[in-house]
Amino acid sequence: MPIPVSDVSAWVNKEGERKLVEALQKLSSLRIIEQKDHVLIMNDTFRHQFQNALTGGGTQQSFGLPCSTPDKHPVDIPFLDHYATTQWEAILHYMVGTSLTKKPSRGVLNLLERSKLMQNR
Prior knowledge:
- This protein is 50% helix and 8% strand.
- The protein is mostly helical.
- The protein has a 3-stranded antiparallel β-sheet.
- The longest helix has 20 residues, at 77-96.
């Protein structure tokens, strides 16, 4: 599916224009994209193989083969719900300063700081 160059250019601010031009040149030199009549077109072979890699399709089994032995610790929806709730509550407790839970990981703290939800003191 062709994408107008003007649409892609609208995705970046002034500071990123040079990086966009460099990225498009690199993608073009690798024959991943081609620019024709002010639109960008992804190489069909690359698109198809990239889609296979992301979805685990094709004959290469990019995500491996299913395990033939049962999992000792099966994961189900209630387990995932409980885990997500526990993690979320730990973040909230940390943000309000209660000591009911352990400190979130460095990655979570970095995300909270970079999103300006919390400040490092």
